[in-house]
Design goal:
Radius of gyration: 18 Å
Number of strands: 8
Number of helices: 9
Oligomer: single chain
Largest sheet: 8 strands, mixed
Order of helices and strands: HHEEHEHEHEHEEHEHH
Length: 289
């Protein structure tokens, strides 16, 4: 078993269709605006790596898709102390998470290799200095990745990590893998937990979730077709520590500060933290509460 082995995540059936939807004319306009925004971003070339430009393009993508932002829109994640960078850790629901977080602060990103091939978000992630890792690679690669992450933090670069390592349809899903937290321990770097949630018409929404083996275009279609979709980004109090296990557990508890464990998952015999079935087989799990 690979050291990168992760929980299986939610099945694609957890992602609900948006309600309400925008009219077909508005949907067409959004796709056209998105195409223009992505073309402009590519035309920037190396200039897209500049934080202000990357933030502007990430916000342009959200705007093109009709996604509003709530929370710390203009507050940075990085904690400026001691010259080291910040390990930013967030729950993982969708490809849209990366866009929303870059729209707040264009930090470097540690992500699975597939992210670089995703339309829309791949180019933005690469320009942000993303370090792509192979989840199916050799366990011997893990210490090198942790060391590279530590080097970034030591050099003053803040790095975004999704310690759940796969996507879930709500905040409450998935354990936090601990390896990345070792880099923060080694460098005495702060850890900034961040909660990402999606809401539509005032209630939780799983429409943006990108789950399992789902095709990217199906997820993009739900996002573009949703009326009143908003992403809420909440930066939690920074953490420091000398034990990666304790740091990972504390960070997950902080991220869950805005999440509610779905009691329906438990009722169906599904552990909301792992997606594992311990009773009747569930047809879906971890719906946003």
């Amino acid at each position: 078993m690979s050291a990168w082995t992760v929980d299986r995540g939610c099945p694609a059936s957890c992602a609900a269709d948006p309600d309400p939807r925008v009219p077909l004319g508005e949907l067409a306009r959004r796709y056209a605006t998105l195409t223009y925004a992505l073309t402009r971003a590519v035309a920037r070339g190396d200039r897209l790596a500049e934080p202000s430009a990357l933030r502007a393009e990430a916000r342009a993508v959200l705007g093109a898709l009709g996604v509003g932002m709530e929370g710390v829109e203009d507050a940075p994640f990085s904690v400026r102390t001691g010259g080291v960078g910040t390990l930013v850790v967030a729950n993982h629901i969708s490809w849209l998470d990366v866009v929303a977080l870059l729209a707040v602060e264009p930090v470097s990103v540690l992500a699975k290799r597939e992210v670089g091939r995703w339309p829309v978000v791949g180019a933005l992630a690469r320009r942000a200095g993303t370090r792509f890792i192979d989840r199916d690679g050799s366990p011997r690669e893990l210490p090198g990745v942790v060391q590279e992450l530590a080097d970034c933090l030591r050099g003053g670069t803040s790095v975004l990590v999704f310690p759940q390592a796969t996507t879930w349809c709500s905040v409450s899903g998935g354990r936090f893998r601990r390896a990345a937290f070792q880099a923060a321990v080694d460098e005495g770097a702060p850890v900034r937990p961040v909660t990402v949630e999606y809401r539509q018409e005032g209630g939780p929404s799983t429409a943006p979730a990108f789950l399992g083996e789902e095709d990217f275009t199906a997820s993009l279609r739900r996002v573009a077709g949703a009326r009143g979709l908003r992403v809420r980004v909440a930066a939690r109090t920074p953490l420091w520590g000398t034990d990666r296990r304790a740091l990972a557990d504390a960070a997950r508890r902080a991220v869950l500060g805005a999440g509610v464990v779905d009691e329906a998952c438990v009722a169906r015999g599904v552990d909301p933290s792992t997606g594992a079935s311990y009773g009747p087989v569930a047809t879906s799990c971890c719906k946003a509460a």
